[in-house]
């Protein structure tokens, strides 16, 4: 499959790669910013709506929130890294050759972004699985048609925001990893 791609894709010139790199970095930056902002807002609602005075028996949601916060921080780093890619692309388009970054520097930037996206995607996936399993176990613990009298068995709608935040984080990191992978494949 890789051989087929290599034969069909021409080797990019520096200017063509710079133009594509700039467009892809801009696309990646804005999409990741929108998805990470949505995740951050949903996570903020979930964190600040939790009653700190009432002890919760559901530690899984707390773990999921922690992993989601780490995922948001990685998304912020990845957004910064996408912006850095735009700066590198602008330097590549400069008419002054001494400002052009080396190919190794561009590859290193793309690889660091790819690694950050993969780690963020893994953490967001684990967090979404933990929170989904936690909510499912709460739902299965309550018999059908019976009123819930125990505070620990109540499924709060704000806990579902944690799942939403994690799914958006998976999308954020997926966009980052796809753009890095595509550019790495094209530059090599």
TrEMBL record:
Keyword Transmembrane helix carried by entry: yes
TM regions (residue ranges): 27-48, 60-81, 112-140, 160-184
Signal peptide: none
Domain of life per record: Bacteria
Matching InterPro entries: DUF3611 (IPR022051)
Sections of the chain in a coiled coil: none
Keyword Transmembrane attributed: yes
Keyword annotations of the record: Membrane, Transmembrane, Transmembrane helix
Protein name, entry field: DUF3611 family protein
Species this protein is from: Chroococcidiopsis cubana SAG 39.79
Lineage of source species: Bacteria, Bacillati, Cyanobacteriota, Cyanophyceae, Chroococcidiopsidales
